[in-house]
């Protein structure tokens, strides 16, 4: 009888393992299939001449343009410039916005007072600030960093504030039973409770910042991926435009994957497994 129990336990343990292996395989196969399908559709559209070559460049011409820009050094310098601007503006927004959201989430009167104002600026397109950014900061890194900051600060503040305000009341009751107050309450109860939501907000906001920097560089910079698209468009080089679009998309996915690694931290993982 004991032998049957051991065999049954092994069989039961094998089922979740096999299911996990299948899910892991599907997570690799399905995205690969979708990417290959999109590339096949691209090739088919160019082969069928649905659009003229100058309006819809073929995959080989885009790859060739990508190599041309890389060998000339323009692509590397543009990537470096865009990543620098996004990093500075986004980090500044996180350093200021997350603590402000934590504070507002725990203070009812300031939250009721400032929430409409924060929400107003969150709904305001950051691109509307472009004329002011150029007048205030001129041309170069500063206006782009300012626009990225404006695009990131208010969504992060509002998301953090809402997460703190929605922490279950039982958490605070347990914290009082353990004698947690002030900074200890914030670091040991509130911040761990809202960290999963804050990381999700960081990922969403990073995508917004990456979109904004491309638009900002088209009008306020002399380098960067956005400026590269603007310059290529003026030169009627849509193959270079498409090449830069591929780079922008791949880098955006890479930034999101990098921030997604924060969800694997032991103190954060529980929030995604609930």
Task: Briefly summarize what is shown.
Helices cover 84% and strands 0% of the residues. It is mostly helical and 274 residues long. Helix 8 (182-220) crosses helix 11 and helix 9 packs antiparallel against helix 10 (238-260).
Describe the overall structure.
The protein is mainly α and 274 residues long. The chain folds into two domains: 1-50; 59-273, MetI-like fold (Orthogonal Bundle), CATH 1.10.3720.10. Helix content is 84%, strand content 0%. It contains eleven helices and no strands. It has helices at 2-47, 59-72, 74-106, 108-123, 130-137, 141-165, 169-177, 182-220, 225-234, 238-260, 266-273. Helix 3 (74-106) runs antiparallel to helix 8, helix 3 (74-106) crosses helix 9 and helix 6 packs antiparallel against helix 8 (182-220). The model is unreliable at 2-7 (pLDDT under 50).
Which key phrases capture this entry?
274 residues; mainly alpha; MetI-like fold; 2 domains; disordered N terminus
């Amino acid at each position: 009888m004991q032998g049957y129990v051991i065999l049954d336990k092994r069989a039961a343990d094998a089922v979740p393992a096999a299911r996990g292996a299948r899910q892991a395989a599907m997570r690799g196969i399905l995205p690969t299939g979708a990417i290959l399908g999109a590339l096949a559709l691209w090739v088919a559209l160019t082969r069928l001449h649905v659009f003229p070559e100058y309006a819809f460049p073929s995959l080989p011409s885009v790859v060739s343009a990508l190599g041309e820009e890389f060998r000339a050094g323009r692509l590397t310098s543009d990537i470096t410039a865009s990543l620098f601007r996004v990093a500075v503006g986004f980090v500044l927004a996180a350093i200021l916005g997350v603590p402000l959201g934590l504070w507002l989430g725990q203070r009812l009167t300031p939250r009721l007072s400032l929430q409409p104002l924060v929400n107003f600026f969150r709904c305001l397109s950051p691109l509307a600030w472009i004329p002011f950014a150029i007048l205030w900061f001129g041309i170069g890194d500063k206006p782009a960093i300012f626009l990225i900051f404006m695009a990131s600060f208010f969504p992060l503040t509002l998301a953090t504030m809402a997460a703190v305000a929605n922490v279950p009341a039982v958490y605070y009751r347990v914290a009082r039973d353990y004698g947690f107050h002030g900074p200890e309450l914030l670091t040991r109860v509130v911040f761990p409770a809202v960290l999963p939501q804050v990381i999700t907000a960081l990922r969403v906001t990073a995508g917004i910042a990456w979109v904004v920097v491309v638009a900002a560089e088209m009008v306020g910079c002399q380098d960067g991926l956005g400026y590269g698209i603007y310059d290529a468009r003026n030169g009627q080089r849509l193959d270079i435009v498409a090449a830069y679009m591929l780079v922008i998309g791949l880098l955006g996915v890479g930034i999101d994957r990098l921030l997604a690694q924060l969800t694997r931290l032991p103190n954060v993982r529980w929030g995604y497994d609930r």
